[in-house]
Amino acid sequence: MTSFDLPVDPDPVEGITGPFDPPGIAWDRVSPRLTTARLVVLGLTLGLPILACAAVAVLVTPWVWLAAGFLAAILLWAVLLVPRQVRAIGYAERDDDLLIRKGILFRQLVVVPYGRMQFVDVQAGPLDRKLGIAKVQLHTAAASTDAVIPGLPPVEAERLRDRLTARGEAKLAGL
């Protein structure tokens, strides 16, 4: 059993329960490799400007060290926050719907009834493929209700795509 096969704790955020933790739900967690993917993107997004600010500070004016320090503080905060954000992502398959939850401070629980799904999409960019993860996106009639499960191993993403598609077709056929 790998770490992403373990169920998500009932609530990884300070033991709070309520509308985000329906009783009797065994949450599945995403792969911890999603943390690495997000940190690489953050490192490139903030690391390159930090290096540019440092170069300008050395070559032109030392006041630019303030900008480099500010960006470095944001990067440090993000490095501490991202692993916790990834641990807060979970999904659960029920008989009639799929639950997806995420967030630490601003929590979100998305319930997608199988009968409302139009199609299920699996995506993996170059970094995702290198790290062995994929993203499953569920599309519904309303664009604002599309749900995403990032950081799944490709085998699990494929299994989930096929299972959700079959369940969605079965629910639509029953209407």
From TrEMBL:
The keyword Transmembrane helix applies. InterPro entries: YdbS-like_PH (IPR005182). The chain crosses the membrane at residues 39-57, 63-82. Keywords: Membrane, Transmembrane, Transmembrane helix. Residues 87-164 form the YdbS-like PH domain. This is YdbS-like PH domain-containing protein.
